[in-house]
Specification:
Length: 329
Amino acid sequence: MVSIKDVAKEAGVAISTVSKVLNNYPNVSDDTRRKVYEVVDRLGFVPNSVAAALSSKRSGRIALLIKLNTQTQAIDEINMQYISGAIYKAQELQMDVITIFYSMVSDMNVEELTRYFTAQSIGGIIIYGMGKEDKVLHQLIDNGDFKIVVIDAPMVNENTSVVTIDHKQAQKDVAAKAIEGSDVKSILYIAGKNDGYVTDYRLEGIKEFADENNLSLCIKTGDFSELKAREITFEYGRDMDVIVCASDLMAIGAMKALIDMDIFHPVCGFDGIILMGYVGKQMHTVRQDFAGISSAAVSELDRLLGGESGQKIVLEHELVRLKYEDIIR
């Protein structure tokens, strides 16, 4: 049986180029397109069953590439919202979608990863949770073989868009809300992972907020871990006036530590996950519409697959103080 690899070798082009031609991508020259189709006809190549099944889809097949949070035993609500939002929008746009967890491909180099996606007739990818140290994903974006949308990472080029919120401003907004009406002189800030783009944005926000309000600032790295935030709070929280956390899970860990120490300080989080409603202390947080963000990413990927150029899309955030009554149904 003739494979797509055979077609690519005979035509003298990359496998991804054959895939682009067969999926009618716009960014392929007429000469290359004619050469690939000539080889396809001559060798009698028939696309695999996956690709054939996709022929009735308007926009083709896309992949959701997701990094799971391994720092907690709590249900990963954020990624579940991402997946549900993407699937709903993909169905609406008649796009076939598969979910791939990063642990499945983390040992691949960029050539292997490209072949992996191409073999599954993937034309577009949404990347969730990409960090600064994910070099293979950076190369994948730079190579331009796929249309890509990244969530919360500063990657915009001809084939790549980003969907995000204004993390810097959101961090300033929730910190201001947490200290409202309080005599605060010092902040313990528990940051996320060092290689995270959102960590940098939120750090920039809290530093600017502290400078603008003449507050002393103690910064510690919590790695988005509830346990680590709890340990940091035990060590540093007693002498600080307010604890600002770069995630809700860390805010929960900080608040529980304060309760164990029989101390009250304002604590705020970031994300707006349902677990915040069960804590009972009604902490302020930034609510992100993760399903909406993912839905917007699918719509943007559809636009890229239609031949448009990459862009940055900034969505709105909301400040909330979740109560148990807000989350039960």
